[in-house]
Amino acid sequence: MAHPLREAAAISGIGETAYTRGTPKSALALQLEASLAAIADAGLSPRDIDGVVPYFPGGGIAEDFIANLGLPDLKLSLFVPMGGATCVAAIQSAAMAVATGVCNHVLIAVGRTGYSGARVSTRLQQFPQFALAAEFEAPIGMFAPAQLYAQGARRHMELYGTTARHFAEVAVVTRQHAILNGNVVMNKPLTVEEHHASRMISDPFRLFDCSLESDGGAAIIISRADRARDLKKPLVTIMGVAEGHPESPASIAQRPDLLEFGLVKSAPRAYEMAGVGPKDIDVAEIYDCFTFTVIRQLEILGFCKTGEGGPFIMDGRIGLGGDLPINTHGGLLSQGHVVGLNHAIELTRQLRGEAGRAQVKDAEVGLVTGYGDMGDGSIAILRRAA
Amino acid sequence: MSTAPVAAPAPERPLPTPTRESQPFWDGLREGKFMLQHCSACGKVRHYPRPVCPHCFSMESEFREAAQGGAIHAWTVCHHPFNFFFKAAAPYIVALVDMDAGVRVNAPLRGVTEADLKIGKRVRLGFEPVNKEVTLPFFVGD
Asked: Which of A32, A164, A289, B35 reaches 20 to 30 Å from A222, CA-CA?
């Protein structure tokens, strides 16, 4: 029997602000601006929203959405505290809410002043999930994600021969895609040589291995599939969706295998719910806080074996026209950092046929991942419905 | 119009705030001992300290002194000081070490060059007092 959540819900609306470095707007204003855009994209009124999952911490809370959008009867207010895995994990929570009839239209929204507001090492101190890192690792000079995730990347290089050239490929291809998109922070070409010459942040991560600190907002609306069918845009259904939490979730250092993320658990569940496998995926939007993170997730997702991610991505495979185009919008590395909600938005555009110059021909099934909070992993598999 | 980024935190060393569970670990470092939490019921070691044994769910535990040697599991070399306190020290190696006692420790590795780093390289723990209350771990080559 098919999973009860399979294609029970759809992404009915998508919205984004401009992605910039510098803004006079608050994170809440960016979050609401994107929300209004998503609501208009769906052809809904703000009054139709009856569930809200704001990204937290940063931006607003449910009360702000009621006060600003005049929501008459909010039935669900949720936080999904999973760092970079939040947005895609929130799709699961929202799909459950609409599939069970608790809500009709759930808004997932991010507002972020990552450039003009507090920077990453300051922001993370608001996360209870970082308490162990704060106690045991910050005092010895390790606290930022670029440092904490670097050790796993180094181990992959030592065990499997993955190289900086592989990392550069992710950065360069992602930049090529960004240049096709009108709403990006980084719009100049990047070469492998420029990647290798960029300053070292935390070995093996150089500057161009790291995602952007940028300002912007993004929002999507999850609706029950039968209701979404009657809305403005082509129907994009959620075939499978899952979140996963790794062993030793708040401490990478104590995790038995540094390279076993939550996605190891969530990806098989999402594929099973969707009734598809890696071979069926036409386009993938992979959470790219770091270049290496993309390589490792492609292994976990079953596109290649563990250790083969480096060679797998070479020779045009992950570019437009390749076997598996990824991050067709420019990702967190080159478009902007809205905690990966831009990845879900781009996948929806691809499946609607609205991706412009980055459109993957005949894209019908795609997947999007979230990764963060020391290794939580979320995944959604979407389909353009007939 | 863009606004200026918020100023970075003042360059003070981030210090641990021990919890009721972790206090004996930090007390041990101050005395030059590597103290690890063991379950009183099943005897298994756990780190970082926490109230419940995830193997047998006992809430009874005791701290025992553990061996100070280990082997490198992974490392990073920190160049960008995310906290300004570490600017003067950068670049510095942080080694993640499989301790012989069965847990991992992340700490700066001193007296070893980047070229000599490899998985499995033997190191041992050192103890650096930073104030009256707090002593922090570091590694040296063994």
From this structure: A289
